[in-house]
Write a structure and sequence with these properties.
single chain, 32 helices, Serine Threonine Protein Phosphatase 5, Tetratricopeptide repeat, about 750 residues, mainly alpha
Length: about 750
């Protein structure tokens, strides 16, 4: 039975690693792009855990000494034996820190299961699934032939993804509909994840092409062509971080070769690389409608090296852009999150120390970033530090960072030891080739993630490679020491052993039931809502009413999904505005209030999501404009919350200042207006902020100062709503002062409609 379980787990793990980079919402069969990937990862992790527990139970029945051996097991004695044991200890320790970080999170449920559908891989559920894959490789791929299977999975999935990416480059993508993207992304949701996967796949493909060359030249040629497609995909995706990662990976590759592989094989590797580069050159020179973005991005590297400045006299924009300057701005803000212990939640002072140790919590980066971000004229939400170490530091704290750095150091030392052992015992052997592919692939990826945004699509394989390095070291240690480890003679205690087996059985049954319940209540429910929605919306025979009902039903099935709740709310808002324009006031109000109720329900789970807060603020404002004065306090509260939680977004500060001014809270309105105005040197003019400041000053009796600020609003952005409101207010002020010519002039200039959008 245990052998059968071993085989099943090997198949599940291999299939999962093969399919995760390739699967997504083909032909929109589900409503959310990442759903199939998440579903596959969680299902495989749960199956592996359940099967492993049942395997443990069967072992306990046969091995009567198991209980005694576990009871007498000593961590430090075991850890001192081999370096890979300490790697396992550090990984387990990091997992415990991750768990505590999730528990201490301001939003524990989001840290446990995730928030936005678009940001996968950071929550505890995803992390534990990665960890399951890592340990599955460590303990079930326990022969070099099985590790060779892992290399085949990596290379084949990379070739398939790269081929699809090249097809996208030439305008063919009927299943994903991403042929119009400037930078290709293949089956991945992001071009950086695609190119980050190529960073790992290229080395594996080179190794396999060479291993096959003597046995099956035709198959080897296919892998060489596939290598060309992988290098093409890496080049055409135009990701500078992955380029650097790939370069570092190849440096490690040939350095490892120098000590462990014959000159003949090194020459073969080099020839394969040259052929792959030539294939890339041919593909790149074929005429297409696309511009040469890759060439431009290489030439533009020097232009990107400029620090984001927030100085008082600076004229450099602090808007988040791509490239090195954008990364530097994000990294600077990320460090401040921990040094200032910033979270949107109100916390006691002692939590500042806890935040330094355990971070703000998994998947919480997106909520803390706006509190320290440099001012941005766009509502650009950043949900990742674009650096794995910084992301860990922010979300899992100093303890998590220390664990990750320790693991990295152990991987480095292990690699050095492996080079020495392979050189002395397994020079130019299959063991050397397999180790070469695994180590160089992981090395490149570890560099790539220091400037990227790893997601499930590429992170799953990265964790598998970490498990593979542990496994490689373990297998080589056994072979070099010629270990046939003779265990200490242990006299089994039959009664204790039986109780132990019974305890394992009860634990296995309990955990199996809990995991199945989790999978059905979370994964099955969510993907069912996604599938149902997509099946109706993509059906040509569905009318507008059918689609509306489908959105409502999907929202009821999975009320925590932001990707569903926001379109449902927008639909109610559109109906509300349409009915109001037709004179059906009561229907309009009812639709707006109902849409708000959906957001209020979602807010109970996620009180800091920016889109939800903006929706609540705008809907309250609209209801106030329609005469429902009971929503004034709600409007003020919402805009005040936006200003406090997102001080780096002057557009929200200006809107908050306007709302507070309309409610008579003039002093606070001026504070928010000044905060927006102070950013103009490195964002853009903010007429609405100047209007709110001017109107507030005038209302406080400071007429001249108010006129000056209002006039500035009309000059800064003449066509903005803030300028129109400023003209209208100036007309009223000049009428009050008896300057009727000025009043009439501003009345004409302010005689324009507001709110081009809702």
């Amino acid at each position: 039975m245990t052998k059968r379980i071993n085989k099943i787990v090997l198949i599940i793990t291999s299939f999962t690693l093969l399919i995760i980079p390739l699967i997504f919402s083909y032909y929109d069969f589900v409503a959310v792009f990442e759903d199939p990937r998440l579903f596959t990862l969680h299902l495989s992790a749960i199956l592996i855990i359940i099967l492993s527990l049942w395997k443990l139970y069967y072992i306990s029945l046969k091995d009567r000494t198991l209980y005694t051996r576990i009871k007498t097991w000593d961590l430090f004695t075991w850890g001192r034996k081999e370096l890979h044991n300490w790697m396992i200890v550090i990984i387990v320790l990091y997992s415990i820190i991750y768990l505590f970080s999730a528990i201490l999170s301001p939003l524990t449920h989001i840290s446990m299961f995730g928030g936005d559908d678009a940001r996968s891989g950071n929550n505890l559920y995803d992390f534990l699934s990665f960890l399951t894959i890592l340990f599955a490789v460590t303990f079930y791929f326990n022969k070099f032939d099985k590790l060779l299977v892992l290399l085949y999975v990596l290379a084949i999935s990379g070739i398939i993804a790269a081929t699809y990416g090249v097809a996208q480059y030439f305008g063919w993508d009927p299943i994903g509909k991403n042929a119009d993207q400037i930078r290709i992304l293949a089956s991945f949701g992001n071009t950086l994840n695609f190119s980050g996967y190529m960073v790992m796949a290229i080395q594996a493909t080179i190794v396999l092409a060479n291993m096959l060359f003597e046995k099956n030249k035709y198959l080897s040629i296919l892998f060489i062509i596939g290598l060309g497609f992988e290098i093409s995909g890496l080049w055409l995706s135009a990701g500078r971080g992955p380029w650097i990662g790939a370069l570092f990976g190849m440096i490690i590759f040939f350095t490892f070769c120098f000590f462990t592989v014959s000159k003949k094989n090194i020459l073969m590797y080099f020839i394969f690389m040259i052929i792959g580069i030539l294939i890339t050159a041919i593909i790149s020179t074929i005429p297409t409608d696309r511009s040469d973005i890759s060439g431009r991005r290489i030439l533009g590297i020097t232009e990107q090296i400029q620090l984001s400045s927030g100085g008082e006299n600076s004229t450099v924009s602090t808007d988040i852009e791509g490239g090195i300057s954008g990364r530097l701005s994000i990294w600077n803000s990320s460090i401040k999150i921990i040094t200032q212990a910033k979270t949107p939640a109100e916390e006691p002072s002692y939590m500042s120390f806890i935040r330094v140790l355990f971070g703000v919590g998994p998947d919480m980066y997106v909520y803390s970033y706006p509190l320290t971000a440099a001012p941005s004229s766009k509502l650009s939400m950043v949900d990742h530090a674009h650096n794995y170490l910084l992301q860990t530091f922010v979300e899992v704290g100093l303890l998590g960072l220390a664990a990750i750095l320790t693991l990295g150091l152990l991987i480095f030392i292990t690699t050095i030891q492996l080079i020495a052992k392979i050189k002395n015992h397994f020079y130019n052997s299959k063991i050397a080739f397999i180790s070469l592919g695994i180590i160089s692939a992981l090395a490149g990826k570890l560099v790539d993630i220091q400037a990227g945004v790893p997601r499930i699509s590429d992170t799953t394989m990265m964790f598998a490679l970490i498990g593979a390095i542990i496994c490689v070291n373990k297998l080589i240690v056994i072979r070099t020491n010629n270990e046939t480890e003779i265990p200490d003679k242990i006299i089994p205690n039959k009664s204790q052993s039986e109780y132990f087996s019974f305890g394992i059985l009860l634990s296995t049954i309990t955990i199996t039931i809990l995991l199945i319940n989790l999978f059905f209540s979370w994964d099955i429910r969510r993907i069912s809502a996604s599938y149902y929605l997509a099946s109706v919306v993509t059906d040509p025979s569905s009318n507008q009413l059918d689609n509306a009902i489908a959105w409502e039903t999907a929202q009821e099935m999975a009320p925590e999904r932001d990707s569903i709740i926001e379109p449902v709310f927008d639909a109610h808002v559109n109906v509300s505005l349409e009915q109001y324009s037709l004179g059906n006031i009561d229907i309009a109000i009812n639709q707006m209030v109902y849409g708000r109720s959906l957001l209020l329900e979602y807010e109970k789970r996620d009180p800091y999501a920016i889109d939800i807060q903006i929706g609540l603020a705008k809907s309250a404002t609209r209801l106030v404009e329609w005469g429902l004065t009971e929503y004034i306090d709600e409007m003020v509260y919402r805009y005040d919350k936006l200003a406090r939680n997102f001080p780096g977004y002057p557009s929200l500060l200006g809107s908050a200042a306007t709302a507070l001014a309309s409610a008579g809270l003039f002093e606070q309105a001026i504070i928010y207006a000044d905060m927006a105005i102070e950013t103009e040197n490195y964002t853009k003019p903010w007429s609405k902020a100047w209007y709110a400041k001017g109107a507030s000053l005038a209302s406080m009796g400071k007429i001249n100062e108010g006129i000056e600020a209002l006039t500035t609003a009309t000059i800064k952005e003449p066509d903005d709503d803030g300028a129109i409101l400023a003209h209208q207010t100036l007309s009223e002020i000049y009428s009050y002062l008896g300057e009727y010519d000025e009043a009439e002039k501003h009345a004409k200039l302010g005689d324009r409609s507001l709110f081009g959008g809702w």
